[in-house]
Each structure stands twice: as C-alpha cells, then as structure tokens.
Amino acid sequence: MEIKVGVVGATGYAGAELVRLLLNHPYAKLTAISSVTFEGQKLSEVYPSYFGLCDMVCKTQEEVVEKCDVVFAALPHGLSQELAASCAKHMKFFIDLGADFRLEDEETYKTWYGCEFLDKALHEQAVYGLPELFRPLIRGRTIIANPGCYATAVPLAVVPAMEAGLIETNHIIADCKSGTTGAGRKPTQTTHFPDCNEGFTAYKVASHRHTPEIEQTLSCYSPNPVNLTFVPHLLPVSRGILATCYAALKEGVTEEQVRYVYHRRYQQEYFVRVLPKGSVANIKHVQYTNFCDISVHVDEHANTLVAISAIDNMVKGAAGQAIQNMNLVLGLEEKTGLMLIPPAF
C-alpha cells in the first residue's frame, strides 16, 4: 500500500515537521510540497537538516493537489477553504492544520478570525480531528480539521472528569505554557531571542483564538455551557505545551475516584499516558513524540481538581496528530509512522 501525500506550506514549522514525520511513515510517499515564500527552492535549502533526506523542490499548491491522494495544509487561517474545495472536487483527502474548519459556528469564526465560511456545505462535510475524543465521527470523512495545540492539551486534560460528572463546568481555568514554535516561523518582537530568553510572560490574556475551540470541545461533554478562563504563556524553549487546568470538584468526590476515571477513559489510548500518583507531567518527557502525558492531582483544601497535560506542540499539537488522523481515515493503525520514543535527557 502506497499513499501519495503532499504538504502545502511545507516551509513553516508545522509543515516542516510533517515532512520529518512523513519521511518515516511506512505507507506514505511524500510526492509534492509547496511554499509561496520559497517556491522553486529545495526544502533542504530552507532546512539544512533535510539535506540528502528531502531535497524536494517547493512547487505550487495546484501541483500538490494534482499529484497526491492526501493533502496536508499548514497555512495561516483564511487560506485553506479554497484549497479544501479543490481537494473535494478532485476527491482527495484534505487535512487542515489551520483554523478554517475548526469552529462549527460561522459567527464565532467571524468574531475570532475575521473571516467567513466561503462554502457552508463544505464546512458541514468537515469533522474536528481529535481522535481520542471524536474517533467515531472522524472515520469515513475526507475533510479533517486538525485541532490547535492548546485545544488538544486542555480537553484531553479535562474531559474525563467532565464526562464522569466529577467537576463543576461553570468556571474552568486553563493556565498554559508554550514553546516559541507555537508562534510560527516568522519572527516577532515577542519571540525575538533577547526578549524571549530568560523571560517568561503571559500573552493574549483572555483573548486567545483557541478559547472558543476549547469551549466547543468541552461543551460536547457537558450538559451546561462551559465557561473557560484561558491564559497562555510563552516559555523560552522551542517545543512543548504544558496545560495546568483547574476545576471545582463536586461535593464528596475523592482523588481515588478521579484517578479511576482517568485511567478508565484512556486505558486503550496508546498516545495518552496517565501518569502514576506522585508524578507530574513534563514537556521534556514527550518531546518529538505524539504522546500526551497527563498527571492528576486533587487539592483537598480547596476541593479542586488540578489536571496537567504535556504535549509536543509540533507533534501531538500539530503534525503528529494530523498523521494520526490520516491513519484513522485510511483504516491504518493510528500509531503507524508515529512510534516515536522521547529522549531520556
């Protein structure tokens, strides 16, 4: 079995990470890549680490769609809808790592991204691709909205307790930290080394675009509207997201109950590791992998659940999950091409 795959936006961080992972996929053949900024150049000229491994020349989006069975798009918001329409017309699988298909409500999309749904019927065909939570809905679909990085880490940390009715849903706090690759390849003043190095700061406080996406996912598991306080912070590291999530426990809920629910919820999920009591999730232990580590804690004094998740924002938070979705829709074992071992130090 050979799957011809292509990456649109291959020279961004998420696109380059897709290339890295796809080169090791036993059934995927990287057939075409594109980049507006570096069209006509070899990928290895942009990323020297790919020299001799992927010297493929960046072509146009049209060539990627023409030559490939599966098209991954690693583009800024607002640029994927027409590409998705082209893939649908040519009966190609389309997996979008951007935000264009993540939100179900058009008004919410307008509010947070300033864009409209160009083809409402196309959006109705799309499905939100967080496999551990929406696997039955993903199978058989051809347009997959790959979740945002924060929007992966937070729901995976919170859903088991919410699903089991152990927590109050009227005010959940997500206190999250991300490596600088989450800001994309184009440098900004915030990610400039002198400003970022040896610093640690919050950004987009109570105004980050992943807020409605997280609330949308959590609301699927709650009988009541979910209100989220979400504050991201920038860590002076390249990779990783640590999501520390707080929610009030319902009266009488014990730590033993909480731990049982988390182990039961994820016992069949290869990529989610619920850590033993006393351990704390650490981004270092999931680096370069598709794992999500979760540690569960109960603050008895405040009757509060503290659920902490750690992911690599470039893998489980982007490219790895996209490949996991490809495996799922094509009927492959989900961990195919993703058997990555985190470094020990």
Summarize, please.
Helices cover 31% and strands 21% of the residues.
**Would you tell me the overall average pLDDT?**
95
Q: Any idea what the shape is?
A: globular
State which percent range the strand residues make up.
15-25%
Helix proportion range: 25-40%
Alpha-beta content class: alpha/beta
Question: CATH fold name of the largest domain, please?
Answer: Dihydrodipicolinate Reductase, domain 2
Helix count?
12
- The CATH superfamily of the largest domain is known as Dihydrodipicolinate Reductase, domain 2
CATH architecture verdict of the largest domain: 2-Layer Sandwich
What can be said about the biggest beta sheet?
Answer: 7 strands, parallel
How many angstroms separate the termini?
36 Å
Structurally, the number of domains stands at 2
User: In sequence order, what are the helices and strands, one letter per element?
Assistant: EHEHEHEHEHHEHEHEHEHEEHEEEH
Number of strands: 14
CATH class group of the largest domain: Alpha Beta
Radius of gyration: 20 Å
Strand arrangement within the widest β-sheet reads 3-2-1-4-5-7-6
List low-confidence stretches: none
Describe this structure in words.
With 345 residues, the chain is of the alpha/beta class. It folds into 2 domains: 3-146 and 316-329, Rossmann fold; 150-312, Dihydrodipicolinate Reductase, domain 2. The chain has 12 helices and 14 strands. It has helices at 13-22, 43-46, 61-67, 81-89, 106-113, 120-125, 131-138, 150-163, 193-196, 210-219, 255-266, 315-329; strands spanning 3-8, 28-34, 58-59, 70-73, 93-96, 126-128, 143-145, 172-178, 201-202, 228-234, 241-248, 272-274, 292-299, 304-311. The strands form 2 sheets. Strands 3-2-1-4-5-7-6 form a 7-stranded parallel sheet, sandwiched between helices. Helix 1 (13-22) crosses helix 12 (315-329). The two termini are 36 Å apart. The mean pLDDT is 95.
